[in-house]
Specification:
Length: 735
């Protein structure tokens, strides 16, 4: 057996420990790289799938517009032949002869019966009087001089003219007229030959064509954007959705026969494909909502996300296990250095390990403070439900101690104190059920008096109440969250769902807090061994991961219940899982314009104080175009995060001032924005460039050609941004 001197043995042990630590760091770095790769790959696949769905929908619109325009053109050709045939049948006859000719009526009636889409064939003289109709014989007294299909032909020959939709005076069904001018040998106006086409024929035919979900088919005139027919039809058959003529005219200036364009209809953005009907000034317009791709994209992305999540969790577990093994090897190597010492030295080592565990436990206790958890839950509940006041009432598990309350409006603390909440919301305290009362002013107590009296100036009252219990794992009630508002019916099923998710998080957090306190008690009473303490710490870590998974589920449910929650969902979940996917998640938003003040307010509002003096926003109203909103929003997010961690917002006296100004530029509007921090810790230039700095200097410079100046002043960071917001086509200049 070979023996080494003590100094040489220690040196070998130190080398083995350093190698183990180096392997652990390398394993951790490789694991983080794998996590970033999985997230970036998932983001790229989701983005590409979205683009494919959008392209497929646009192709379907173009194909449907082409097919329906071709069908309509053929229908109009047959209609034109029908009119010419009717004109030939009456050739050489006076109007009195035409009106009295039953054989002629039988001929045009046979033509009308042969064509299913024609409701009636009409012959009118120069005064608009109806002389012959295929609907009945003899001809009823009807005059069409007020119809546009008649007046348009009076001034000059319009050829085949398609009139606006009407309610037939004879047939009483929604139709539109197609007319041709009748004139004598001298060219004078002699009347019109026309047919009325039933809108139901188009609806029956269009309903059989495969169209994207939420599609709308419109037959319209190109000259005045008059809608002739629309599918799905309106309830009364004639009140069609209006056409955005300015957007349609702009598209026609680009290409007059067929194309794709965006427009606003009934307050929502749509994308449509148009196609000219033959050589006539008529167009088929097939459109659908701009966000029609969302549902299939979400279904597909959820499947991809499940696989990515499994791979991510597996990679994180393997990385954590490998890193822990290397650190354990390093710890064993360090322990070997002390094996030559006496048992007293081993006892000192165990004591030092217990001190480390106690310090770690103190940090966890600070992060899982019960009062701060309750305050955060009440604050979040007020924000989620838009309540004017909220309170936490302790349950039986907490000995029914005094409660914590917060009022967003002056006077509501007294209004809460005036109510017997435990009696009004008894099922929440005794049975653990959610209680929602739309108007407690009409609810009466045991003595017949209402719970809430009439409000007086300066003394508001609670009308709407919602009480949601926080249930522990053992079935007991830790407490009840109660929120109130002075208006009736302010809380709804959505409020219940949001608060259910919030209380599930609160329950886990409070349970973790209880477990932490129990662990501290066990450490003080039994002085468990290091292995038992490690198991407890791993259990706490496991419960924190469960809390994060619950947060992710709540955000997913919120995204499915709202129209524009995707930004919130993507950014929130992405920041919990990894900061590496900030760019890919923010660029998944589909914005047209975004208010600069709203972006700043959303990011900085959580850090403002009650008096609103920590955050100062100064500048005119600015609407950011789509190509600028995402990078500028990311930059503001990174500046806010940096200020909250290391800058002015990390201290209670810190302040952030954001000012901006605009001026006209050749290509749009020049935006000059200044971010200034003060009152925080002393600032010095960083030794390495982080993600935020790369975002400000590279992404903004590449995408917006922006000039960014960062001044790391000792009193606080100052960032100046200078860029030109370019005008987007067909949307006017940016504000």
């Amino acid at each position: 057996m070979q023996f080494y001197p003590r100094s040489e043995s220690i040196s070998l042990s130190q080398k083995r420990r350093r190698r183990s630590l180096a392997r652990g760091r390398l394993t951790l770095a490789m694991g983080l790289f794998g996590v970033a790769f999985i997230l970036l790959t998932f983001g790229y696949i989701a983005w590409e799938q979205r683009n494919r769905l959008i392209q497929r929908n646009e192709d379907d619109l173009r194909n449907a517009a082409f097919f329906l325009a071709d069908h309509t053109a053929r229908l109009l050709e047959v209609t034109d032949l029908t009119l010419k045939q009717a004109m030939a049948l009456m050739q050489g006859q006076s109007w009195d002869q035409v009106e009295a000719s039953q054989p002629l009526w039988q001929q045009i009636h046979a033509v009308e019966e042969a064509l299913p889409y024609i409701d009636d064939v009409l012959l009118n003289d120069s005064s608009g009087r109806l002389r012959l109709t295929s609907a009945r014989f003899p001809t009823p007294e009807v005059n069409v001089s007020g119809r546009d299909a008649f007046t348009a032909q009076m001034n000059r020959d319009q050829g085949l003219f398609v009139g606006e939709p009407i309610l037939g005076r004879v047939t009483k069904v929604p139709t539109f007229m197609i007319s041709r001018r009748l004139q004598g040998s001298d060219g004078a106006f002699g009347g019109i030959a026309s047919v009325t086409v039933t809108l139901s024929y188009f609806y029956d035919y269009w309903s059989k064509v495969r169209l994207p979900r939420g599609s709308r088919v419109v037959l319209m005139r190109g000259s005045d954007a008059e809608v002739i027919a629309q599918y799905p039809p309106p309830p009364d058959g004639l009140s069609f959705a209006p056409i955005d003529k300015s957007a349609f005219d702009a598209a026609l200036r680009t290409t007059s026969q067929a194309g794709l364009y965006s427009f606003i209809s009934l307050g929502s953005e749509r994308v449509g494909a148009y196609r000219q009907v033959g050589a006539m000034p008529l167009y088929i317009n097939v459109s659908m909502p701009r966000d029609a791709y969302w549902t299939p994209w979400f279904v597909q992305t959820r499947l991809y996300g499940a696989f990515a999540l499994v791979a991510l969790l597996a990679l994180l577990a393997l990385t954590t296990l490998a890193s822990q093994q290397f650190h354990e090897q390093a710890a064993n190597a360090a322990l070997l250095e002390r094996q030559v010492s006496l048992r007293t030295h081993e006892l000192r080592t165990e004591t030092a390990a217990l001190e480390i565990l106690n310090r770690t436990g103190s940090v966890l206790a600070a992060e899982l403070d019960l009062d701060r958890i309750i305050e955060s839950v009440v604050d979040a509940g007020i924000e989620l439900t838009e309540a004017q006041a909220g309170a936490f009432f302790c349950g039986a598990a907490q000995g029914r101690r005094a409660h914590y309350s917060k009022s967003a409006v002056e006077g509501f603390d007294a209004a809460f104190a005036a109510l017997d909440i435990r009696a009004i919301c008894a099922p929440a305290f005794t049975e653990g059920r959610t209680v929602r009362l739309d108007n407690i002013a009409v609810e009466q107590g045991y003595d017949g008096t209402p719970f809430t009296m009439d409000a007086t100036p300066g003394h508001p009252v609670i009308r709407s109440l919602m009480a949601v219990p926080i249930l522990l794992r053992n079935g007991g009630t830790h407490g009840v969250l109660v929120f109130g508002h002075d208006r009736s019916g302010i809380f709804n099923a959505r409020s219940e769902r949001l608060l259910a998710g919030l209380t599930s998080q609160a329950s886990i957090a409070l349970e973790n807090s209880r477990l932490y306190r129990d662990a501290q008690t066990e450490i003080e009473e039994r002085k468990q061994a290091q292995t038992q303490q490690s198991l407890l710490i791993r259990e706490l870590h496991h419960r924190v991961k469960n809390t994060l998974a619950t947060v992710q589920a709540v955000v997913g449910a919120t995204a499915r219940s709202a129209l524009n929650i995707d930004d919130f969902y993507q950014a929130f979940v992405g920041r919990i899982i990894s900061l590496a996917n900030t760019h890919s998640l923010l660029t998944e938003a589909v914005w047209q314009t975004a208010s600069l003040r709203e972006i700043l307010g959303k990011e900085l509002r959580p850090y403002n104080d009650v008096r609103g003096q920590r955050i100062t926003l100064t500048g005119p109203a600015v609407e950011l175009p789509s190509d600028a909103a995402v990078p500028i929003g990311m930059a503001i997010h990174e500046l806010t995060t940096n200020a909250a961690k290391y800058g002015a917002l990390s201290q209670s006296r810190g302040k952030v001032s954001v000012s901006w100004e605009t001026e006209p530029a050749e290509e749009g509007t020049r935006l000059k924005l200044v971010w200034e921090e003060s009152g925080g810790p002393a600032v010095s230039a960083p030794t390495r460039q982080g993600f935020g700095s790369r975002l400000l200097h590279r992404v903004l410079a590449t995408q917006l050609n922006a000039q960014v100046d960062m001044d790391f002043r000792p009193e606080g960071l100052k960032v100046a941004l200078d860029t030109v917001l370019k005008n987007e086509p067909n949307k006017g200049p940016a504000l």
